[in-house]
Amino acid sequence: MPPKSPPILYKVELMPRPFSLQSNKARRNVMDWNRVEGNWKQMKGKIKEQWGKLTDDDLDQIAGKRDQLEGKIQERYGIARDRARRDIDDWYGNQTWH
């Protein structure tokens, strides 16, 4: 009887999906961000409640632009840009007005 061959093991690597649920949520939040931009004067108070280290000058510079908000949060809190983006997504998702 010939010697038994060892079992063949297969390595399967999963590739990330190009459009995950998270990216859909993030995309939807970006699309809805125009609501924040359009009501920036009213939104500044809510943003200041969430991110108290942002100054009034910061908020005036941001002027409703999401990428500017991400950058200022990153700068003031010393966190990575991706973390700032997730924090904004979480904050936005918890708002009752959207």
Automatic annotation (TrEMBL):
Residues 34-85 form the CsbD-like domain. Coiled coil: none annotated. InterPro entries: CsbD, UPF0337_stress_rsp, YjbJ_sf. It comes from the Bacteria. Belongs to the UPF0337 (CsbD) family. This is UPF0337 protein. It comes from Rhizobium favelukesii.
